[in-house]
Write a structure and sequence with these properties.
This protein is α/β, with parallel strands linked by helices and 204 residues long. 35% of the residues lie in helices and 25% in strands. The chain has one domain: Rossmann fold, CATH 3.40.50. The chain is built from six helices and nine strands. It binds glycinamide ribonucleotide. The site of glycinamide ribonucleotide has 18 residues, from helix 1, strand 5 and helix 6.
Length: 204
């Protein structure tokens, strides 16, 4: 078997998606990637603790983010980046150094409820405000356009009339995010995803 792809995970908060990745590597669902390091743009992100508990190098970077992150990833030998609840925009330097090697999880069905200002709980607030009956999660490649890169995988989740943003967020995480993010990472790391125009072709 090929050596697992060394993967950097970017986080900003609680890190439940990071936890899903760590668990999937541990239980063998993800076998083509390993978590090389975790980077947060917030000092107090609990996600950093989750990484440290597993002995994974984890760092908060609050100044010169791009330069410091590139240096740290270099030290850790990171070949791939997963944005797992990273609530900031990726700069041009990282985008060009890791072209087509950055994936992001978004808590809605892109192209709905995405783009600037649509992150975290706000996404679910907007979904409830609009009254759609289906939402979900999307894993996509990261490009210069916010939430505009090629889609790798999506999963729909039902919206219920008595949902609050918090209840809906939890259902979207449990029924979609924690499932499709590890799956998409395994597909990308094993070389099974090819980009053709706007389409990701998955060969299993
Ligand atoms: C997740 O719902 C993730 O999809 C979302 O932030 C949450 C982070 O939770 N990401 C975005 O909104 C990106 N635009 P976590 O820290 O528990 O994984």
């Amino acid at each position: 078997m090929a050596t697992p792809m060394r993967t950097a995970v970017f986080v900003s908060g609680g890190g439940t998606n990071l936890q899903a990745l760590l668990d999937s590597v541990e239980n063998g669902t993800v076998k083509s990637a390993e978590i090389a390091c975790v980077i947060s743009n917030k000092k107090d992100a609990y996600a950093l603790e989750r990484a440290r508990k597993k002995g994974i190098p984890a760092k908060a970077i609050t100044e010169n983010f791009e330069e410091e992150a590139l240096r740290f990833m270099d030290e850790c030998g990171a070949e791939l980046i997963v944005l797992a609840g990273f609530l900031s925009i990726i700069g041009k330097g990282i985008l060009s150094a890791y072209k087509d090697r950055i994936i992001n999880i978004h808590p809605a069905l892109i192209p709905s409820f995405c783009g600037k200002g649509y992150y975290g709980l706000h996404v679910h607030e907007k979904v409830l405000e609009y009254g759609v009956k289906l939402t979900g999660a999307t894993v996509h490649f990261v490009s210069e356009e916010v939430d505009g890169g090629v889609i790798i995988m999506q999963k729909a989740v039902e919206v219920r009339h008595d949902d609050t943003p918090e209840i809906l967020q939890k259902r979207v995480m449990e029924e979609a995010e924690w499932i499709i993010l590890p799956k998409a990472l395994e597909l990308v790391a094993s070389g099974k995803v090819k980009i053709q125009g706007r389409t990701a072709i998955i060969t299993e």
